[in-house]
Amino acid sequence: MKFIKALVLTGISIxxxxxCQATTSLQFTSSTTPDVVGYxxxxxxxxxxxxxxxxxxxxxxxxxxxxxxxxxAQVLGCSGQQQIDFTSKIQGNYARIFTQxxxxxxxxxxxxxxxx
Length: 116
Hints:
Elements: H1 2-17, E1 21-22, E2 26-30, E3 33-36, H2 42-63, H3 67-75, H4 81-92, H5 94-98, H6 103-111
Antiparallel strand pairs: 1-2, 2-3
Helix pairs in contact: 2-3, 2-6, 3-4
């Protein structure tokens, strides 16, 4: 819960500075520094995030690193070495996760790699 509050505060701070574009439920400072704000569960956050950022996630998962992939890891409770392990797992399972899968299926596969 502390992490979600931190995300909300970060999003609000960025909004205050006028550096981000707001949508109904997602706020992004740019295409390379994503923030998820306004959801009550990690499932909701991941589903919305995948829907809005699938192309970036696909690219970053293939590379094994990136801001969007790190955001997913954080929402799933990964920190420190767990984030590194998470991104490695996602890269190693790239085809199984992203090939011919709907946004919802991708979300569910990412959720199965929770660190909590």
